[in-house]
Amino acid sequence: MYYKSLKKFPHDFLWGAASAAYQIEGAWNEDNKGPSIWDTFSKLPGKTFHGTNGDVAVDHYHRYKEDVRLMSEMGLKAYRFSIAWSRIIPDGDGEINPAGLKFYDDLINELLKYGIQPVVTLYHWDIPQALQDKYGGWESREVIGAFKKYCEAVFKQYGDRVNYWVTFNEQNVFTAMGYRWASHPPNVTDVKRMYAANHIINLANAEAINLFHQLVPKGKIGPSFGYGPTYPITANPDDILAADNADDFNNNWWLDVYCRGTYPALVMNHLKDLGIAPEVTAADAKLLKSAKPDFLGINYYHGGTFQQNKLEHPSKEDADAKDFSSTDPYLMQPKDSQAQEPETPMFNNVQNPYLTKTDWGWEIDPVGFRIALRRVYEKYQLPIFVTENGLGAQDQLTDGKVINDQYRIDYLQAHITEMQRAMTDGVDMIGYCAWSFTDLLSWLNGYKKRYGFVYIDRDDDSQRDLARIPKKSFYWYQDFIKRNS
């Protein structure tokens, strides 16, 4: 669709940036905070790059006022951050920790002082270790009540000041990485257990949404999903069918539950045939149907390209680029023979010959962002809040403390332009939170993979002085927000 001019962003559009507690806070055991599964997992030998962890991270816990002042200088309208569950309730379901409540009280108040809207994520991958030990984490329905207790505490504490809440961040990613690849906690490789845990998380999500609507009736809540559009590699109807199968498997399996309260029939029937489908009781179905999100958070980095499955068309195994082992496990793309089991009869994931890649092998596809926003909005008719979008790169600090990250500016500009085109197409947009505000711990990739507008002077081997240094992209985004264009 070509337009002579694009629709202008509304004056109240929430230009923001995002982060997650474990990746920035540090202070992992201060002020009565309990350990999370990431505090434990990151210390297992060989699990993270150079053994990096979030014990100190970028020390946001002690430097939040400095960080918020920089946000104000940049002109942010919103800041998305997550609350560490084990900072609020150290053992997950016991006594509430006043010091934990106070930290986020202080952070929220500091943001509001500068006119920045806090956007709170309830769960960004860091369930308390005590619940993992006691119940097996998300594999037990007992955890639903514990999560609901935690949600009640923070809704009551902050609901008068926080308008936008995110329930779960990228459920599709943390369940796959944790229960399928064993590259995240809880370090499991069992597809059936993954689907069982995923269903329990869906129930917890529904409980949280319903509770929120009771306690914070004027607020807005929704999940944040790692979405990627699916493309057929050719116009062959078999490849188009494969891409549709992949869309059901990679996207609709979660989004249909969030927005409609039902699992897509194709995938559920397939998983039942394989004996790995989750058990859904009548009470579960009723609960899932009852929870209605107010918006959808979309995290966008890339999508995927697909061709007919290898069982029906084995001749398509003709290049390393089309080998399962060469693909990125992000967004549940296949990785090895064990992981392929559900996907093998449905589709074959291949490389897209029209796209370039980041240093970490993620495809760069700005037009896919527009496609993603349009598809999600047209299907579910919910306002969309872009809760993550950004570029990880190995930024270099040069003499004079300058970071020339023009490549990040180019990336963000291209994606924001496509977002504006999607808005012109008719998509109802709330805001855009780039990932991330400062550099942070990039989970498995340590501190060398940088996403931030603000450089943090540390590396994988040394904390250095943790100085905050705005990058070139900081000033670009500052000007962009000021002009709202």
UniProtKB/TrEMBL annotation:
> What sections of the sequence does the record tag as coiled-coil?
none
Tell me which GO cellular component terms the UniProt record holds: cytosol
Q: Which GO terms describe its molecular function?
A: beta-glucosidase activity
Highest taxon above the source species: Bacteria
Keywords, sorted A to Z: Glycosidase, Hydrolase
- One example of a Gene Ontology biological process annotation: carbohydrate catabolic process
Please note every region of biased composition (Basic and acidic residues). 310-325
Q: Which Pfam families match?
A: Glyco_hydro_1
Active site positions: 388
Give residue spans, biased composition: Polar residues.
335-345
Q: Where is this region: Disordered?
A: 309-345
Q: Which family does it belong to?
A: Belongs to the glycosyl hydrolase 1 family.
Q: In its UniProt entry, what is this protein called?
A: Beta-glucosidase
Organism of derivation: Lactiplantibacillus fabifermentans DSM 21115
